[in-house]
Design a protein that fits this description.
Structural class of chain A: mainly alpha
CATH topology of the largest domain in chain A: Tetracycline Repressor, domain 2
CATH superfamily of the largest domain in chain A: Tetracycline Repressor, domain 2
CATH class of the largest domain in chain A: Mainly Alpha
Oligomer: homodimer
Number of helices of chain A: 13
Strand content of chain A: under 5%
Distance between the termini of chain A: 50 Å
Helix content of chain A: over 70%
Number of domains of chain A: 2
Largest interface: A-B, 55 and 55 residues
Number of strands of chain A: 0
Chain lengths: 208, 208
DNA sequence: GTCTATATTCAGATAGAC
DNA sequence: GTCTATCTGAATATAGAC
């Protein structure tokens, strides 16, 4: 039983690609049909409307976007290990899906209503709560400098996500082609981890 | 001679607001007309097409977006002062125009051709070059840790811009209303500066 | 299920009166 | 310069044959 791919899946995959690249408003149903190698009427046969099709894609991707960070935070690894792991996991994900951050953030920006629906299934609030607790603990244990957990989380996310959000601008201003940019992103993990650790460490000691 | 605002300016301002919030594809000419308090035909009388109107708005905003960082970098302030000033200036700008980062980055993502046009007038490449030189110098002088200038610049930009790029998600996951978010952004400057400085400082000394 | 052909809707653009 | 009314084209959606 060779798992032949159903037409439905072909469509969703094509839709994913087109929506990710263009966003909802600029995406065209005929592009999606063409990408899927079928015609436009079939899109409507499977998914009643552009809105419905988009919802399916967006929901999937926003689940993919909400990282597996929560498990890492809930594990019993030491704090700096957790930090490293969450940075590594996120960077890996974005490397394999560079459009994901821009897609999700942009659609949230454009369409707050849709976001509300996502809110229920997302775990971002749990991640923030758990992260805050851990940071407070580490501070009290004297392992890291005093820092506002919310600010720290924003900085970490900015450091990992920003390069993908700004990819075209970065390539332009740094004079990079696709290959050079990818190389920079390969090297990013090391930079990000040591940068953040350094910013957090208390002056004298070096926790490992 | 009271400087009565010309219809043209009213339109451009309305267009700016609508385009910034919705992006090119989702923005509607009738929304812009309504926002401007005139009718749609007049838009076309002043600016031939949606494309033309958008170009004008985008060009203005992308110039605004390219910070006055270059002057700061070219000044004769000490390195860490430059760093602080450039962070402060950028955060100030984004606080007064929170949609700016998403608008510019998103349109660059969607429409690389338009970006090419901007490339010529933008100074981002100069900023990167100058910044790199300064970082190298500081490292050689023993004032900062060894760090790849490109990576560092990405981290700084991520730290300052990301909160505005992800504003809706952040509000949601941290449970903030508009006011609380603004407060967080007020406090961001202090966090950002000390975070980045700490990450850069060599272990023993503290340069000022 | 898949297609071609067609209807509908909507947004950008124009004509022409004032 | 500004308006109302209208055209045109494009994009979504449907009808109906196979």
């Amino acid at each position: 039983m060779t798992a032949t791919i159903s037409t439905e899946d072909v469509i969703v995959d094509a839709a994913r690609r087109v929506f990710m690249q263009k966003g909802f408003a600029a995406a065209r149903m005929c592009d999606i049909a063409q990408t899927a190698g079928i015609n436009q009427a079939l899109l409507h046969y499977y998914f009643r409307s552009k809105d419905k099709l988009f919802s399916i894609v967006f929901e999937k991707e926003s689940i993919n976007f909400r990282s597996d960070v929560l498990q890492i935070l809930n594990s019993d690894l030491p704090f700096f290990q957790k930090l490293r792991l969450m940075i590594r996991k996120d960077l890996e994900k974005f490397r394999s899906a560079p459009f994901l951050p821009m897609f999700v953030l942009n659609e949230m920006h454009n369409n707050p209503e849709r976001m509300m629906h996502i809110a229920s299934t997302s775990q971002h609030d749990l991640i923030f709560k758990k992260f805050s607790t851990l940071v407070e603990q580490e501070y009290k244990a004297g392992n890291i400098r005093k820092v506002c957990p919310a600010q720290l989380l924003l900085s970490i996310m900015g450091i990992t996500m920003f390069p993908y959000l700004a990819e075209p601008m970065i390539k332009m201003s740094m004079g990079l082609n696709g290959e050079a940019f990818e190389k920079l992103m390969e090297e990013r993990e090391e930079h990000a981890i040591s940068f953040i650790e350094q910013a957090l460490l208390v002056d004298q000691s070096v926790a490992v």
